[in-house]
Design brief:
single chain; mainly alpha; elongated
Length: 79
């Protein structure tokens, strides 16, 4: 009786180990590789966004500098 229980437990543990080893979720979770056209599209989109953002960032920087200069002038006039 003990031998049958021991064999059943060993078989169950081997079966569980085999199922656990065979189930690889890394492949299911990973994104499939992009094709050449998708990569080119992504690169073109990034370049377009950078070309649009660059002048806007420069304009914001100049506006911030002007605001700082005006604040300094107001502060010096108030003193």
């Amino acid at each position: 009786m003990k031998k049958k229980i021991m064999v059943a437990a060993m078989a169950l543990s081997c079966g569980c180990a085999a199922l656990f080893a065979c189930s690889n979720n890394n492949e299911a979770e990973s994104e499939p590789p992009k094709g050449v056209i998708e990569q080119m599209t992504d690169n073109a989109a990034k370049k377009a966004v950078n070309r649009i953002r660059s002048p806007l960032d420069k304009a914001r920087s100049v506006a911030d500098q002007e605001q700082d200069r005006l604040n300094d002038m107001d502060q010096s006039l108030n003193d």
